[in-house]
């Protein structure tokens, strides 16, 4: 069986990171997200995928080309010129699909669910489409799904308002679709599978669901991306490592009195100066530098990020090549875009987002 991976979205909610890196390639434990997606599909017995691309397709294609270890797993690219939406993106991929059912996956979900079981259940009901559901605390950011006792979908409401919330079960973004569903998608325009196709299938009593209780997360916001990073580092999902996970590349330059706290992942070419503390579910991309006495905890530093002496980064995301000046404090889910400069002595907090390339003068922001 083949899969279509939807990876054409703009990643708006994960800006400023997604100005430079498509959501499908943001790293978790220094492995691009797409790597987890491919592992998930291959683990579920899928033989090949069509990537439904739109925004920033080139780095995604390059990642696949450079991986080169997909032995036998075929990858095709369907690139759209303008956004076609979630159903339009599937339609655009159809020319690469063989006849028969297909798995469709939102390219931003991290999950340990059993894909083989989903396919099996789909076959057993004979429905045109089967969607996997997961339980979340606040369904308003997702597609809410009401089901009957026999798991036929009774209602699908994309992004329900708080007063429409009747269940905690939402669309997990993993579907099995029969070819008839692809024929229902009008060609050449933007079509949302959640808003147009699922409600029509539901009316025809052709949409079934099953619930997965496995790990599941949509990494589309800074909060959920950082949480997924923490979860992968601490072994809640992925390779199954524990809280003692410590992967520090052998090229790392570590000066005296450095504290490395697991779980932590440090990629090639990093430098950690004397007295610094790095870890507590942090990951440092290639070529990062952490200055004397600086602290990096519970954070993601992307390639080439620099944290100067005495600075503190906690629970935040630092874009590629960004620089945090001496004694600055970056905490509380702050998100810094690529190459921005936080001058010394600034304090960033409360989910502040700094656009790529912005320079904050010393001591200009405090909370
Ligand atoms: N090719 C293509 N074209 N892909 C797209 C487009 C498009 O125009 N728009 C979005 N995508 C891709 C995104 O890149 C992402 O991987 C996936 O489709 C889902 O889009 P999101 O923008 O992340 O949607 P969402 O998270 O708000 O909601 C969706 O996912 C939830 C689960 O994570 C919906 O399917 C919800 O019903 C669902 O609960
Ligand atoms: Mg999403």
From TrEMBL:
Pfam families: GMPPB_C (PF25087), NTP_transferase (PF00483). The keyword Transferase applies. It comes from the Bacteria. SUPFAM superfamilies: Nucleotide-diphospho-sugar transferases (SSF53448), Trimeric LpxA-like enzymes (SSF51161). Residues 261-351 form the Mannose-1-phosphate guanyltransferase C-terminal domain. One of its GO terms (molecular function) is transferase activity. CDD domains: NTP_transferase. Coiled coil: none annotated. InterPro entries: GMPPB_C, Mannose-1P_guanyltransferase, NTP_transferase_dom, Nucleotide-diphossugar_trans, Trimer_LpxA-like_sf. The keyword Transferase applies. Keywords: Transferase. Transmembrane segments: none annotated. Residues 3-233 form the Nucleotidyl transferase domain. This is Nucleotidyl transferase. It comes from Rubrobacter xylanophilus (strain DSM 9941 / JCM 11954 / NBRC 16129 / PRD-1).
